[in-house]
Please model this.
Amino acid sequence: MLESLHIENVAVVKSLDIEFTDGMIALTGETGAGKSIIVDSLNLLLGSRADKELIRSGENKAEVIAVFGRLSADVLCALEEMGFESDDGKVMLSRSITQSSSAARINGRPVTLALLREASSMIFGIHGQNDNLRLLDPKNHIEILDTYAANKQLREEYSQVYRRMLHLEAEIDMVSKDAREQMRLREMLKFQVDDIDAAKLKQGEEEVLEALVARLKHAERITKCCALVQKALEGGKGMGAIYLTDRASSALDSISDALPEAEALASRLAEVKYELEDIAASVGALVDDGDGDPTAKLDKAEARLDTIARLKRKYGSTVEEILAFRKDAATKLEYIDTADDRKAELEEKLAFAREEAKDLAKKLSTQRRKAAHGLTLGVKETLAFLDMPKVAFEVSINSSSEFDPYGTDKVEFLISANVGEPLMPMEKIASGGELARIMLSLKTVLNLADGIDTVIFDEIDAGISGKTSRKVGIKLKEIGKNVQVICVTHSAQIASLAHTHLFVEKSEKDGRTQSNVRELLHEERILEIARILGGINVTEFQLAAAREMVAEGESY
Model:
């Protein structure tokens, strides 16, 4: 149940804290006092759109915080699975909005709006005139019936199979594209794979070829310079650097017995000689290109680079990208070549999924037909109490062989407002007042089935009055025996039945209007009920009537 609600900077509310009790709670007040602000604030916790116009004029941020306690074990378990544990059985939902953003929290932890919406929808619900209009759309009728039939688990199982069917059908459709289109695609892919394969590309090949081309283009200059180096090192007629270094080393070695320092110098010169010999050999290898004409080699390397450049223009900017393109094309080619086998496999899987779906849809249909009888009786009984005894109500279920997200059933609520008239869809018959009573009848029957501990009724008295309003109030109080009922109303007949009566009023502070909420004591409640009954001034007759209505309400 909703234990407390804090509203800050929402519309004309500066700061408001409301404590709630269990049972049936009435919220009344003059038109424009701020009752709708409370409903709008709770709607924010249900994940509704955060309109920046809700922020109080002159403020930067609005915030709504609600604490719920005494939640059912099923709700607490579901919240725990979502990652929100509660040691004391309480949950705090909050939503803040600024001019540019919106933030949601559960137990103080930031969450997405989708997660807030999922969690809050298990805890409380708001029923307003829009929900009455939802009754006119048959698409919503199957949801109501499934709630009454407790089909949640079975629906989830069916939904999983149904989604698998759609996925398999999409795959089969893709595999079964026009044969000529597939053939054209196959020919193109085959050409691309063969074109790349013919080049026999290797990773890093392009860099090696570019280095070779650069070397071959400067072969004459390289040969000339290397020959000069070799001549300087190896020389001729005993004048090369290697020969002279060797002679110098030997000369120093010959005087080492008389001059010990010479031995170390001779050793260093010997090392220099070995280094010069190694350099000479390396320079010789630089100009040793093996057999063949350098010009022919250059032509071959440049032709190879031209081949790579052609492939790059068609398939990728690098050899690596070309090879990746080839791999992808080969995969697609294999996909087309194995299409028939894969299609047969997919069709086999689809047939199995269809059988699964058929079995689950049949179970759903059986459950719905059993539940439809009880729902029909419950609604008709409640409608009779709400001054609609001659209205016929029926849950129509038509099954087919076609699958949809709900199974194979088409569910629609049919009514007949007058004796002797045929049953017709609601959208063609029901008035606003009738819709309100039908919705309340459904809510009465469902109040233990949907698992929600708190339900808010926003102006359920619209379109009804007098004795009917009183009976609506009695039904709300009846629902309040099992769940917390908060009713925003302009009806004295309904408000006088509440266990707790909250009064919404406007006042002025520091030159600004703001809304306040307070619980009415017994005599204050009598005055408020009398005010609602009408008249410019409250009369003794109205006070007496109000006192009688409250006393009668307490006796229920």
